[in-house]
Amino acid sequence: MSTDMSAELEIFNRRESEARSYCRSFETVFTKASGAEMTGADDKTYIDFLAGCSSLNYGHNDPDMKEALIAHIADDGIAHGLDMYTHEKARFLKAYEDNILKPRGMDYKVMMTGPTGTNAVEAAMKLARKVTGRRNIVAFTNGFHGMTMGALSLTGNTGKRGGAGGGSLSDVTHMPFEGAFGDDTDTLAYLEMMLDNSSSGVDAPAAFIFEPVQGEGGLNAASDEWMRGVARIAKKHGALLIVDDIQSGCGRTGTYFAFESAGIVPDMITQAKSLSGFGLPFAALLIKPEHDIWKPAEHNGTFRGNTHAFVTGRVALEKFWADDGFQNDVQHKSAILTTGLQAIAEIVPGARLKGRGMMQGVDVGGGETASAICARAFEKGLIIETSGADDEVVKVLAPLTIPEETLRKGLNILLDAARDVTVQTKVAAE
Amino acid sequence: MSTDMSAELEIFNRRESEARSYCRSFETVFTKASGAEMTGADDKTYIDFLAGCSSLNYGHNDPDMKEALIAHIADDGIAHGLDMYTHEKARFLKAYEDNILKPRGMDYKVMMTGPTGTNAVEAAMKLARKVTGRRNIVAFTNGFHGMTMGALSLTGNTGKRGGAGGGSLSDVTHMPFEGAFGDDTDTLAYLEMMLDNSSSGVDAPAAFIFEPVQGEGGLNAASDEWMRGVARIAKKHGALLIVDDIQSGCGRTGTYFAFESAGIVPDMITQAKSLSGFGLPFAALLIKPEHDIWKPAEHNGTFRGNTHAFVTGRVALEKFWADDGFQNDVQHKSAILTTGLQAIAEIVPGARLKGRGMMQGVDVGGGETASAICARAFEKGLIIETSGADDEVVKVLAPLTIPEETLRKGLNILLDAARDVTVQTKVAAE
Amino acid sequence: MSTDMSAELEIFNRRESEARSYCRSFETVFTKASGAEMTGADDKTYIDFLAGCSSLNYGHNDPDMKEALIAHIADDGIAHGLDMYTHEKARFLKAYEDNILKPRGMDYKVMMTGPTGTNAVEAAMKLARKVTGRRNIVAFTNGFHGMTMGALSLTGNTGKRGGAGGGSLSDVTHMPFEGAFGDDTDTLAYLEMMLDNSSSGVDAPAAFIFEPVQGEGGLNAASDEWMRGVARIAKKHGALLIVDDIQSGCGRTGTYFAFESAGIVPDMITQAKSLSGFGLPFAALLIKPEHDIWKPAEHNGTFRGNTHAFVTGRVALEKFWADDGFQNDVQHKSAILTTGLQAIAEIVPGARLKGRGMMQGVDVGGGETASAICARAFEKGLIIETSGADDEVVKVLAPLTIPEETLRKGLNILLDAARDVTVQTKVAAE
Amino acid sequence: MSTDMSAELEIFNRRESEARSYCRSFETVFTKASGAEMTGADDKTYIDFLAGCSSLNYGHNDPDMKEALIAHIADDGIAHGLDMYTHEKARFLKAYEDNILKPRGMDYKVMMTGPTGTNAVEAAMKLARKVTGRRNIVAFTNGFHGMTMGALSLTGNTGKRGGAGGGSLSDVTHMPFEGAFGDDTDTLAYLEMMLDNSSSGVDAPAAFIFEPVQGEGGLNAASDEWMRGVARIAKKHGALLIVDDIQSGCGRTGTYFAFESAGIVPDMITQAKSLSGFGLPFAALLIKPEHDIWKPAEHNGTFRGNTHAFVTGRVALEKFWADDGFQNDVQHKSAILTTGLQAIAEIVPGARLKGRGMMQGVDVGGGETASAICARAFEKGLIIETSGADDEVVKVLAPLTIPEETLRKGLNILLDAARDVTVQTKVAAE
């Protein structure tokens, strides 16, 4: 390790809060990044299978976005304009309308919430309660929706909930996500029974919220039937349907929204992570026009509408979503990913594939094994993380733009790492 | 209005949620901004007395930050790295330590929360509850701390609270801020009585949170005595002291932190708005080391540590806070501001000055008058907004870097606007 | 109707709150009652198959209790002594120890809560939270535990919950009671899965609370296996087990406690209704000695320990529970009840039996039919009520001391009433 | 101590929960009671200055009530009839209408809640929220309203609140009672300011609830002006006014209701304690007819309308409230009480009188002194207890029917006890 890097690591220990996390798995100081690769202070280059947890679907420093952003800044374009009207916001909205809404026959109002996923979720919760006059919101096992008190009440993870320090996480009913009781049990039937029974103790809900593929919860992918089932039950009970597409959206599963194949029309959709295209903080809430009953500033915030993100986000929409090319490419790479992960699953006893599209991984049976594989992979030049209630899933979230060769290279590293760990475990067991 | 601007305004009406707010006061489309001025699509230039609600203390597109940011992007510097260690984060922390903490003899851990003020506040609330094992938090009348459910529970404004749609805003006790009962009543005595009485029904608090100058609440400035009193009462009752310096910090009142003159040492300090220096989304929570008991990722989020903001934020620290020059300059301009506002107060019957430093305004007695003055000012080329429970305060939040001449020019416009409105009102009354 | 009775009914309309309920089904003014019969102001006598909702297990005005109570009053025995030590309280506790605890090998402290079932439930909730330091309590579908805010949070019924007027009913998770998904689904497996999954969003519970037979919820009787399963899961998760035996206890199901056959040892048991033996307000909470961590007066109330109820309650214990005679008699009558209800079930299409012991009824498929049967029965001289989420169960809660002849007579009236309603319905359908 | 008494004390230790309280101050076993005196198992007779905490305003075993109750029981009158119509309920309501409502020009519906004060309070809270559609309820410092979760949320005492074990006590704002800041501070002005300020964070209240004289909180007596002020503020803010007259009502302060002198008309009034006249469990909620929007059984309970209490409660109304005689007598005795307490206050340094009517006491400056005085008084044959946040008030709650001679005798014992303790303290200090 270089002297400089040691000094820098020291300042993190000295000054950065214990809450820091990813840095603990990847003990280096990163300096540059491009496409699907990141470079450390030691000039070592890593393939990035984490991609900002799906915030970098178009890779690091996409050249077109980069160019547009530099031009904007150089030209004294607005950096911060609160939620005033700006030229760049207009252009972004136009591009969103033309490339996303119109081709899909969708009609939504766009709410620029604070530039974090949790803020978009909080806005959705508040609005659903305002619209329906009800308080209860149904969320699902293994769901992850954010860390502020509203979003945290929806989040299933015990450790995260413990972070509330005893603050009330109320007005939410947690129900089983598809597959939560194993494949044989119909979780929709359960959901319906609890809501149909007027003495179940589950209050009439304002909304149902789910992730089409649970990113933090272990890459649990809801089937189209299940998504349609939740939509039907929500409608039957006068509740709104909120799809949290923050991690699964922006092309991650092979279509722009992760629920497109189900043919459902959510009342609200949360977006963040890759919405800016460049990794800049940005979030939005799509709202069916009839539900857009906010009063001006009723939910506000300083950084609503990050203007730099409008610039890069617009370029992303125009570059990747004007036609089917990108989408088809993602689906092609998804097949490569499936094949690569199957090879890994074969060598880890009891392992099974999870997820769909470019949001897949391998459940290796336990958090210890998964962490060991990821740590070994990092040593070999691959950035990758775990997911799941017990961190039992090795999760691949490569940039969607990753070159096929790099994707295969990364998968090979992962296979090697898995092999190393499996062999080690066998040896240790003997 | 140009055709293009009409088309752009149309798309906002068609696609942007009704929650949008500032844009309603400033009906133009902004294209560029530099220093203390913003330019509209109609090429009209406005003096900016709003400054992103104190997010642009160093003005728009500061040339040094701009240069550094462009170089960073051009060089494929990290744009998004989750909370991994990056060279730019290390440099920012170093600059923060050298220019802010050390000179003030402060020892804090820095928590990179989600890049919004409300997220920093939520992190502080959660941590205070974890540290103390208590739930109640004491907040103050006219306090504004954010829109997510935790921060909203601290916020006093009825309209904002109504946005929760009936969701629970519990575990908070609202107490009178200094001056809330008029100048003659000792609000600290009240606070102390309620906490000393074991049968008051006010549960032992985890924390007290206040803004040194209430930005949204009407520019109510706490005296040093009052801040020290709250600190003393918090200590006596085993509660943490959280200072929300989001709007009042980063030099706004004449010192880096708005509580420096009081000589208090808060247990936690929230920062956001001008922390990036450039208007980019960025927030942090300062935590006394002994309270930094977070487990890794116990409070997390995708955009913790906006790397672009590290770049510009570092430049801001090095450029403006390496010595006393900037601070002295701000204090000098504050005096000019006071003089200018006094002139305005003299012509509006019953008006009085509020706030301190470069965070001053005039309470003109009612929201209608204040809005009329701001609207008239905008016609004359000045961007300015109201504040207060009834929007009764005309609030000046000019960039701290504003040239004196521009400041005086803006104040003159404001004086004219106030005169116009006062005359109009008199005529209407006759 | 006599003139006097008209005048009396008028005063109820004029002065008694709309919350009154049972009186609406039985439009007469009652004057006297003895054994299993009540007499109205019109001298008409009714067989009582309601028995104060199981508060009169030993019938009205049992002669031995009556004699003892009159002697106590005549002799200036204490009527009200707060929770001071009284001779009658000592005698009651001794009789409880000798006749209930010792023969069953049970060791419990007795807490005299306020003299209502809901108060005993509230005390149990509070204590479970104190003991465990946790907040969540698991309650079950169709459970009924009372109307004060704590107990109401456990209660499933939507209408009852609506009575809270929007007050928070938080810190409770509602889970499926046995059979809630039909006979084929294992509700224990569901319960276990939700608690085992650390990302289910169901917080670690302080306690589980259930009724062995759900009185208001539709006479759903838990099997021994299910009760043992809940006990096992509670233990595994460090939660207390609270059995709410208020309606099902005091011999109602054939044993003193309704859970005896399951062989479980609850951490707390709530008792009320028939505890006084005479219908007087009285409730108690049994607490395992190691959990009795209350500080003096930490849960108090004016009417803890109704002294008149100590007198009659002691007589009840000595008269009915000194040996197996009464218990055997109840089991014998339960068989008669089953036979009688089967006859009714046979003539109502789709009907099925519910409950066990002297707590049985017939699910007639809908609330309208059940209400019609009860109304017709009242015309014929039988007091009987419905139960269940949709009032679909005709519920028999006759005094356990009812003479066999009267029981058969009542069942015949019920059969006639069911026949009348069934014929009517058929005619109407044709 | 007799052998029998020892055996009885042993069973309390063995079987009664640690929550028991009053018995700890009065270490004897009581056997009989009549008028203003109680007799222990050791045949020692005590003057009762506690009177069931105001539940025995007419003394123990009033001969007329006793006779009526025995006749009722002997004649097989209804003991328990749920909330069915009974002859005795009709007679009680008629007597209440004739002797209480009509003479005072009051029009209220009577809700028979569960027979405890806390249940009446819970019903009032729920109904106020239903009527207004708001959740917040304003309660006052040192208020005591009960131990179930709703009522407990209104109660100020830290120890009592701690009994909730961390369960949520939300939706309540605690405000200063009259005199809470000392005599010079206008608590109504504070209350009004917090409610008038739309950014105070105090949500629009459903109701205000207060006790005219705070029984447990230290005999703080609200002035007529203060009660009128709260009534006015409640009306102005669209909130209901609930007066909790449980301890202060039924003649205790010299009029039937403790707020009569203020001329206010509460929207709801809670009654319990002395309502049955005989110490039997009984409570009621008076509701203005326009607010009686309960659905049948929306707030229910097994022991609503204790029939034995209807019998004795009716006799109490007819015997004591048919004319002014009793009321005048109570006022006469109140003067004697004041004089007696002044004598005590004179010998205890710093002592001062609290309360009004027959609800007076002496604040002796601290809980230790007060407890010592009460303990000494018990040794001398007087039952008396403390009150206040720190138990600093020696509280006299003698039966209103106490003979003057007995009252004077009791006061002399108290004076002696105070003298003993004062002398002891002086000696100890020297």
Automatic annotation (TrEMBL), chains A, B, C, D:
Keywords: Aminotransferase, Pyridoxal phosphate, Transferase
Pfam (any one): Aminotran_3
Enzyme Commission number: 2.6.1.76
Source organism of the structure: Roseovarius halotolerans
GO biological process: ectoine biosynthetic process
Name of this chain's protein: Diaminobutyrate--2-oxoglutarate transaminase
Single GO MF descriptor: diaminobutyrate-pyruvate transaminase activity
Pathway: Amine and polyamine biosynthesis; ectoine biosynthesis; L-ectoine from L-aspartate 4-semialdehyde: step 1/3
Family statement: Belongs to the class-III pyridoxal-phosphate-dependent aminotransferase family.
InterPro entries hit by this protein: Aminotrans_3 (IPR005814), Aminotrans_3_PPA_site (IPR049704), Dat (IPR004637), Ectoine_EctB (IPR012773), PyrdxlP-dep_Trfase (IPR015424), PyrdxlP-dep_Trfase_major (IPR015421), PyrdxlP-dep_Trfase_small (IPR015422)
SUPFAM superfamilies in alphabetical order: PLP-dependent transferases
Cofactor(s) in the UniProt record: pyridoxal 5'-phosphate
